[in-house]
Amino acid sequence: MKSDPIQFSRKFGQIKQNWGLYTLLFPAVVLTLLFSYKPMYGVLIAFKDYSPALGIGGSPWAGFKYFEKFFNSYQFSATIKNTLVISVYSLITFPIPIMLALMVNQMRPNRFRRFFQTISYMPHFISTVVMVGLMMILFSPSTGLLGNMYSLFGKEAPDLMGSAGLFSSVYVWSDVWQHVGWDSIIFIAALSAVDPSLYEAATVDGASRMHKIRYIDIPMLMPTAITLLILRVGGLLGVGFEKVYLMQNDLNITSSEILSTYVYKIGLLSSQYSFSSAINLFNTVINFILLIMVNQISKKLSENSLW
Amino acid sequence: MGVLETAPKGNAGKIKKNRSSDTIMEIVMYVISATFLVILIYPLYFIVIASFSDPSAVAGGQVWLFPKGFTFDGYKELLRHENIWIGYWNTILYTVVGTAIGLVINISAAYALSRKDLVGRKYISLFFIFTMFFNGGLIPTFLTIRDFHLYDTFLVMVLPFSVGVFNIIVARTFFQTSIPGDLWEAAQIDGCGNLRYFAQIVLPLSKAIIAVLGLWIAVGYWNSYFNALIYLKNPNMYPLQLILRNILITNQMQSGMGTGEAAQIALRLANMMRYSVIIVATVPIMCVYPFVQKYFNQGVMIGAVKE
To answer: Counting beta carbons within 10 angstroms of the beta carbon of residue B288, is it exposed (0 to 12), middle (13 to 18) or buried (19 or more)?
Structure first.
């Protein structure tokens, strides 16, 4: 087929005929090349002693010097551990939006359900900055809502924002609060695709609501859930910078310094470009390997996979 | 599966038994969802009433269900801070321009990729998807932006990161499933080219996906602070979120006020402003969602994950 001249000229004709489609693709392709692929070439500085005067190409090679520096630094095990704790903890909360969707699906389509759904989406629209600001205000042991609730019972509130031990819990559960409603939308949509005659047949066969959830709803959600789960596991070391960085302070830094905040501090605040890039590259490669592994496992076990 | 198989034997009795277990379940469900609703709403409601209350009453734990010492001082204080309004204006600008650019780029690329007769479709898709899992990282991207002289410019806030691969996949799925293929064949016979077909026939049929992507992109721009933190130096270009970060989290408003009565008042007002600024920053973007909500039910999201 490859060397068939007729096939070839037919393809060429098709390209020529569809030039409009390539025009539509052009802006996205150019931007991706410039701002995603060009920086990938810049990853080379992880293996170089980068100096801005010499540029990426001209800087001398450093081999794996910066990787070794990271592996040997005291921050290595700390940042990896903190990153893993937060992401595995978040992963455990993965079923919560599914449970919410199953519950919403059981509600009769009335006003309460609509109100419930609208309210549950709302926190999703709060920005990270406002969210963390909100937490700092509400969780303040002396003047915050939480502090005042504790003092109603004559007790002293724990300092949630200034505790290393509680950092991951505060991070993960505030995330659940903010996004559980939104994350459930996709599952509610999947459930709305269930053929109603299935439920009717199940009722005739004497199935209770629990049975219907167990044998109709949950199997219906599996493909969506597994796809999303694969993506989550593939991003295990990719805990976002934005929220953690805002929540960091001197009191919780021992458990809040994660890979992405460390990369930012080393790279942009103390200008060690090569070192920072090496840490980041290590992070990306691990994530990439994880994604491929999980995808392979899922393919074997459940015939669901990303590719 | 045991239940469904054995069900026909004692059907009538079973259905009766299940009715009562269903009633119990329904009660439990409504209790859970009502509790959940309170946990979701109360913090938001509290911020609203706190913003209208006397700050010392808020800090002293006297505000629970209604505002105490009703006042607009928090909002009046906002008006005095010019940088908030500069930030507000900047955010509106970045959001409007960024969303327009993002929609044009992603929707057109997605449409081209949805067409099965696009030669090289698989490779172009891969070209985009690869960037979801592998990227240059912070420093190489930063260096690229600087090399293109985009650092500290308006353009860096709206253009470089406007290609959203996930958005493209979602829109592509939408086009594949909801624009009938024969439509293009008919248009072609009438001598209509790809670009005209896209603009005059496809786009008017795609309001749902335009609304959904528009919402996603706009919320992203409105709420982000990361790009501004990294790529902007000039405070007059700061978006609202970066200014909020100074007010809510790093508390820069309070530094350099000195001591004495004047400082006490300033501190009081700064504390008050924290509530009103949250309201002013969050309400506009939350108000957009109800207008777009109906489109989320058209199965836009589910297709994305199945693909």
So the answer is: middle
Looking at the complex, report in whole angstroms how far the Cα of residue A42 sits from the nearest Cα belonging to chain B: 5
Rg of chain A in Å (alpha carbons): 25
**Contact predicate A42/A56, CB 8 Å:** yes
Q: What's at A159, amino acid-wise?
A: D
Residue owning tokens 């999703």? A124
Side-chain-side CA neighbours of B102 within 13 Å: the count stands at 30
Give the homologous superfamily in CATH for domain B73-299: MetI-like (1.10.3720.10)
The domains of chain B are located at 2-59, 73-299
Chain B residue numbers with beta carbons less than 8 Å from the beta carbon of A23 are 194-195
Rounded to whole angstroms, the Cα distance separating A280 from A39 reads 12
pLDDT at B227 over 50: yes
Using an 8 Å CB-CB cutoff, list chain A residues near B109.
Answer: 24-25, 27-29
Of A132, A130, A133, A135, nearest to A146 (Cα)? Answer: A135
Identity of the residue in B195, B274, B299 whose CB atom sits nearest the CB atom of A137: B274
Q: Provide the β-strand partners of residue A61.
A: A48
A157 and A150 in contact (C-beta within 8 Å)? yes
Please give the helix or strand (H or E) that residue B230 lies within, else none: helix B226-231
Residue-wise pLDDT tens digits, A218-265: 998 888 888 888 878 877 777 789 999 999 999 999 999 999 999 999
Where exactly are the structural domains of chain A? 1-63, 64-302
Q: Judge whether A178 and A240 are in contact, CB under 8 Å.
A: no
CB contacts under 8 A, B 209-248 vs A, are: 219, 222-226, 230, 241-242, 244-245, 247-248
3-state secondary structure of A61: strand
Asked if pLDDT for residue A277 goes beyond 70, the answer is yes
Interface of B with A in 71-100 (CB under 8 A): none
Cα–Cα distance for residue pair A126/B244, rounded to 1 Å: 12
Helix (H, G, I), strand (E, B) or coil at A48: strand
pTM score > 0.80 for this model? yes
- CA B271, CA A231: separation in Å to the nearest integer? 41
At A250, give phi and psi (nearest 5°). Answer: -60, -30
A155/chain B closest Cα distance in angstroms: 14
Q: How far apart are CA B168 and CA B161, in angstroms?
A: 13
Q: Of A25, A138, A185, which is closest to B43 when you measure between CB atoms?
A: A138
- How many other CB atoms are there within 10 angstroms of residue B45's CB atom? 12
Residues 161-190 of B with CB under 8 A from A: 161-163, 168
Q: What is the pLDDT, as a whole number, of residue B252?
A: 55
Q: Can you tell me the ipTM of this complex?
A: 0.88
Q: Which helix (H) or strand (E) holds B172?
A: helix B165-178
Nearest residue of A to residue B299, measured between CA atoms: A189
Rounded Cα gap, residues B195 and B188, in angstroms = 11
CA dist., res. B300 & res. A28, Å (int): 22
Angstroms from B177 CA to nearest CA on chain A: 15
Q: What CATH number belongs to A64-302? A: 1.10.3720.10
**A215 touches B: beta carbon within 8 Å:** yes
* Measured CA distances, A228 to A95, A167, B304 (Å): 11, 25, 11
| Nearest CB to B281 within list A45, A130, A132 | A130
